[in-house]
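I have been asked to look over a protein record a colleague put together. What it holds is a sequence and that sequence's fold in token form. Please read both lines and tell me whether the tokens look consistent with the sequence. I do not need a full report, just your reasoning and any doubts. This is what I was given:
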Amino acid sequence: MQPEIFVDILQEAMFMVMLLVSLVIVPSLVVGLIVSIFQAATSINEQTLSFLPRLLVTLAAIMYGGHWGIGRMMEYTIDMFNRVSQVVG
């Protein structure tokens, strides 16, 4: 058991978390920015105006990117199971 193996596993796990979270967060962030610019330009200060578009974009991102994200997570899990022999033995 070498520490480099654990560092590689931790690095891959953090990358996987960042990848899957950014799948949902980045589209919502972009839409929130666009809506806030629109609100600032028109002086509309309605809180629900920014909530609904972000919710719809987040749901659409999960709907369209969920299959890809689950596939990546399955590949990562299979890779971790294949690495058990490196960690234990």
